[in-house]
Design goal:
The protein is built from twelve helices and seven strands. A three-stranded parallel β-sheet has the order 1-2-7, with helices on one face. The chain has a two-stranded antiparallel sheet with strand order 3-4. The protein binds S-adenosylmethionine. The site of S-adenosylmethionine has 14 residues, from strand 2.
């Protein structure tokens, strides 16, 4: 392992002997001219610009893709990723001036890729995201009557219904109302795909889950619980608004960052349609 990576790994309590036993890093370096463990690449670098428009568990580290693209391809070449997932290879290829084609089976992953890859009218997108957020804030405000440290619901406000048992089980009443309201207004905008991604990312964070178990929660938490991440008692998540607010601004920032470095190279995404038997 490179010394810099080893130092970072030890800092995080990682058993570097086991890594060194299992990987022939020297051989990788000889072939590729780099250390492919990427342990010293920090989280914010692995999720730079559009690579974190939405979490995606099986994502390539973009720096890994970059090593291979730089080594085997040139500006103007076309690369194919037949299982393109959240589109990491397509975005990295574009930054290096390489055309790309991605093939993907999952409709949701296709949506993530398209939002990352599309060249948007940024001022228009920003205006729409902020407008949708303002309307949600108005709805959320009307929904609640604050009193004596309690949040109650105002019965006069239109309430949204859903047949989904999953939504009813995994969200607090307030969070669910905010999610359903936001979903209902997406149709009013041109850039619906971006708003869908903001909503999906926010809904993921607003579930009734403990802070330490975002990826695979087993059952909803409705009571105060001991949080092993924060080492204190935490209360269950009660709202979606704060996440939609946070991710609205984060999305605008990330789209702008990629817009500054993107090239004219093309990105073509081919959704695979499942055959009906
Ligand atoms: C591990 S992910 C790829 C992740 C990607 N490298 C990234 O950085 O986001 C593999 C992807 O292959 C897709 N997939 C699986 N079978 C497929 C098929 N037959 N055709 C197209 N895509 C497929 C899955 O839906 C999944 O998104």
């Amino acid at each position: 392992m490179l010394e810099v990576n080893k130092a970072a790994a030890i800092k995080f309590g990682i058993d570097t002997h086991r890594i060194e036993e299992k990987t022939d890093t020297q051989r990788s370096i000889e072939i590729l001219g780099d250390d492919l463990t990427f342990i010293s690449v920090r989280e914010f670098q692995r999720t730079k610009h559009v690579h974190r428009l939405h979490p995606y568990l099986g994502k390539f580290i973009p720096q890994l893709v970059e090593v291979f693209l730089r080594r085997y391809f040139e500006r103007g070449d076309t690369i194919l990723d037949p299982f393109s997932g959240s589109g990491t290879a397509l975005i990295e290829a574009n930054v290096l001036g390489m055309n790309s084609v991605g093939i993907e089976l999952s409709p949701f992953n296709v949506l993530i890729q398209e939002v990352k890859a599309k060249g948007y009218n940024i001022p228009e997108v920003e205006k729409e995201i902020k407008d949708a957020l303002k309307r949600l804030k108005g709805f959320s405000h009307r929904l609640q009557i604050k009193g004596r440290g309690q949040t109650l619901f105002d019965d006069k406000v239109e309430r949204f219904e859903t047949d989904s048992e999953y939504l009813k089980e995994w969200f607090s009443d307030r969070a669910l109302q905010e999610i359903l309201f936001y979903r209902s207004i997406i149709k009013d905008y041109k850039n619906q795909d971006i708003l869908m991604i903001i909503l999906s990312r926010s809904a993921r964070s607003a579930r009734l889950i403990p802070h330490y178990d975002l990826a695979r929660p087993k059952k909803p938490v409705r009571e105060t619980y001991w949080c092993i991440k924060h080492k204190r008692y935490c209360t269950p998540i009660d709202e979606a608004l704060k996440f939609i607010n946070r991710y609205s601004y984060d999305t605008i920032k990330r789209l702008k960052e990629f817009d500054r470095i993107r090239t004219d190279a093309s990105i073509k995404i081919i959704p695979v349609r499942r055959q009906k038997n």
